[in-house]
Amino acid sequence: MRVLYTFCILSFFSLLASGQTTQTEFGKNRVQFNQDFADWSQYESPNFITYWYGEGRLIGQSVVQLAEYDFQEIQGIVDYRMNDKIEIIVYKDLTDLKQSNIGSEEAFVNTGGQTKIVGNKMFVYFNGDHNHLRKQIRSGIASVYLNAMLFGSNLQEIVQNAVMMNLPAWFRDGLVAFVGEEWNSDLDNDLRNLLLSGQYENFDDLAEDHPQLAGHSLWYFIASHYGTPTVSNLIYLTRIHRSVDSGFLFVLGSTYERTTQAWEDFFIKRYTAEKQLTTSPDSANLRELKIKNKRNVPLTALKLSPDGTKVAYVLNEIGRIRVYVHDLATDDRTLVYKGGFRNAIQATDYNYPLIAWNPNNMELAVLYEKRDVPKLLLYNVLTKEKTEDELINQFQRVYSMDFINPNELVFSAAVRGQSDIFRYFIKTRQSQRLTTDFWDDLDASFVQVHGQRGILFASNRPDSLNVISVLDSILPVGDYDIFYLNLDSIGSPELVQVTNTPLADERMPIAVDTTWFAFVSNESGISNRKVGYLENYLHHFDNLIFFDDGNQMRLHSDSMITEKLDSVALSHIDSIKLVPVIKQRAVTHFTTNYDRNIVLHHKASRNDRFVQLFYDGNKPRIYYGSALSTSPVVPVLTTFRQQKLIVKKQPAFDPASNKPQQVMKEVDKEPVDVETLPQEKQDTGKVDIDNYLFQSEFDDTEVPTKGKEEKQPEVV
User: Fold this and answer.
1) Is residue 196 part of a domain?
2) 138 in Cβ contact with 181 (< 8 Å)
3) pLDDT for 255-287, tens place per residue?
């Protein structure tokens, strides 16, 4: 008893010391590369106080709405209440978060992708994806609540529960991840890779190396078999009895060892059965590109040269960056760019650098960030010469990059807190905005299909409209589909929606040839490749009305002309002509049935060679092939995907679902461009308007920032 008393006293003073450190900085200020942090504003809602700065107003608005939207659900899962409001500090990107002096060192420790927490403060950043932002917010709320629930909210409770500091890492990290996001195909793929790799004998071995993933999978297993309310009961009894074993025994009626054994049997049986029905990359007529990577450093970018003879890739070892060009013929590799240093304390930025091959086959573009300034490096593979220039300061962050022609690039980038598609002119350093809305636009890729130039990109927009829109009560947190933007008709208010797959994401579109394009879809539960092409079809007919004074008017053929025009106008009608309106649509199908996710892929523009990246356990493996197939394949639905479709009451995909039901009718008249679009009401879904902050509640006036250079004008 005396030993336990002494331990609690020592724990009390250690916690007291760390609490003082949380509020005090003893000269550990970070270098800041801009003056935005001098101007902070805040939004206060019933349960949160949200702080934002500079040009982060739109991100701040999204954060406060997302936090309130998910608050009640998270409270229900953890079954706990707090009187104090949670403070959320919002940053425009990860670089800005690393520069912040708010909080202590603990606020920025790299904890495997978790939201950073100090007391009841949480730190979030925007990476172009509101779904990722939502995940951070949910994880942060869960962390604050679990800290208060397990360890108490005052010093007396902290000392009383000091023994709880011995909780295994998987318990808390996995629980925060479980609340932060639902189990999904990416997590399912990660767990499948690790369990079938043979590297781990049981749950404890996996939890030692991957506590967050192991814990998340165990909580998902418990919620699936015993019900979600069991989670809060297990947390409560674990706290009361101060023992994980006791919590499992009292709530589940089974010991911790038996539960983890049941977990292992459940997932191993599921994944083994799925593997027998899928194809391994090793048996898919592909060749593996062996690279020097003994420590299994994450590979974050992969691009094949236009002639298919060289592969460029990026290795990022917790901040230490290397960009290589590997010659497939000689098996030699050249270091193109190196930067950064290993930093195990702060979160690693895997977004930069970006790479892209110039269509001239002689230059590799490397876009990286130095001192919070994005820079574009052009490396000549023949002469080894390098030229470097800064991007215009309009872009807060660039998320993807591809060449349109030797002098133009296409970006998906963030400006004033929202991600859009931009055309960038290298020589003049000017840009042209192609989308202007609050939806997330990522993975921009240039294609030449159907006799026209265009941009394929992934977006969570609900329809094909390309109009200026501002953030309101509709939040951009839907699934990602592929859209096509025609560069030869810029300004058109409509895009071509290539995919429309509820409960599935399509990402990473690439060009295949002048007919086909490809992208990756997790519609089957594993990220497999789909290919598609565009075709014309008869959308509808319009009435083209000619008046006797030479003017014309267009109305939909279903419109009643007598209701649209008054008697005077009707009397001046000379003739009416029925004209067809021709639009484009995409036809797509799967071409692979792999046993694991395609992480990255790319294809040479001048021949059929392609390259793709998979993970085997923790090891990245690059494969390349001589011809990217366009033949249709029906992938197997994973067990997780089947269960999700049943729960959400969605039909499984039909191999022929993307083929048009009506064959296009040939018309004698020339296609007529659409001049006006019908008013399409956006679907808000099931939204509780009483718990929303509407746009009218925000200040639309831009807050001026000190010390910011004036933005360069865009080319319109």
Assistant:
1) yes
2) yes
3) 999 999 999 999 999 999 999 999 999 887 899
In this prediction, residues 15-26 reach a mean pLDDT of 32
Element (H, E) at 224: helix 211-226
Sheet holding 452-459, edge to edge: 441-449, 452-459, 481-486, 496-497
Beta strands in 347-407 (DSSP E): 354-357, 363-370, 373-380, 386-390, 397-405
CA distance 584 to 495: 9
Residues 209 and 323 in one domain: no
Q: What is the largest CA-CA distance in the chain?
A: 104
Rounded alpha-carbon distances, angstroms, from residue 525 to 185, 385, 528, 545, 659 = 5, 44, 9, 51, 21
Q: For the chain, how many structural domains are there in total? A: 3
- Structural domain boundaries, residue 234: 167-277
Q: Indicate whether 568 belongs to any domain.
A: no
Count the neighbouring beta carbons within 10 Å of the beta carbon of residue 497.
18
Q: How far apart are CA 269 and CA 265, in angstroms?
A: 6
Inside any domain, residue 454: yes
- Whether residues 378 and 443 share a domain: the answer is yes
Length of the chain: 716
Query: What's the burial of 685, exposed, middle or buried (CB within 10 Å: 0-12/13-18/19+)?
Result: exposed
| Burial classification of residue 360, based on how many CB atoms lie within 10 Å of its CB (0-12 exposed, 13-18 middle, 19 or more buried) | exposed
For 566-621, the pLDDT digits (tens) are 888 888 888 889 999 889 999 999 999 999 999 999 999 999 999 999 999 899 99
User: What is the pTM for the complete model shown?
Assistant: 0.85
